[in-house]
Amino acid sequence: MLTVNDLSKSFGNYTVFSGLDFQCVPGTVTTLTGSSGSGKSTLLNCLGGLIQPSAGSITVAGKEITQLGSRGLLKFRRNTVGYLFQDYALVPDKTVYNNVALAMGWFRPRKNLIDEALNTVGLSRYGNRPVFELSGGEQQRVALTRLLLKRPPLILADEPTGALDEANSIVVLNHLKQMTIDGATVIVATHDPLVMSYADQNIALTHT
């Protein structure tokens, strides 16, 4: 369970959002929607422990992450959170194997495990290919492979379909939905109606 209570975030005199209250239960997809500048990405960063809110609390699985120090936040991000970004967050000149190994903190690629996950997302025999040779949809599926291997209980996705065509978007969304069936909590910042059709609840952000 993720619980947000009276959450606010400001930068100087500019208030991005204030007074947010909501819950996300395991096994569900929650979308964050709103116009550009409404705070979707900022809220995701707060939920992932990347930035501190200005006020309020975030509790994940009974632990109030807004009270954690830097070491506790590092452990939280490593053990609990998985990320999926619009720009894929891959190293272009590294192979698929090396990108996945790097994200997993492995000294060298565990090729059998990676191959199994790549096959799940339709990228069998892609392990030795450098990322720069892949299409946007293929790169996002490499990013999905990292989540399949990590199996984090909390997945935060920032416009994951923003650079994809509909076919690749559906592949990504079906895998995210499957992760909720396996018990994950998925939170997606989006403006894409297709993504919203997969949501169990929506949090609409507005300028304050």
UniProtKB/TrEMBL annotation:
It comes from the Bacteria. This is ABC transporter ATP-binding protein. One of its GO terms (molecular function) is ATP hydrolysis activity. Residues 2-208 form the ABC transporter domain. Coiled coil: none annotated. Keywords: ATP-binding, Nucleotide-binding, Transport. PROSITE patterns: ABC_TRANSPORTER_2. Gene3D superfamilies: P-loop containing nucleotide triphosphate hydrolases. The lineage of its organism: Bacteria, Bacillati, Actinomycetota, Actinomycetes, Mycobacteriales. InterPro entries: AAA+_ATPase, ABC_transporter-like_ATP-bd, ABC_transpr_LolD-like, MacB-like_ATP-bd, P-loop_NTPase. GO terms for cellular component: plasma membrane.
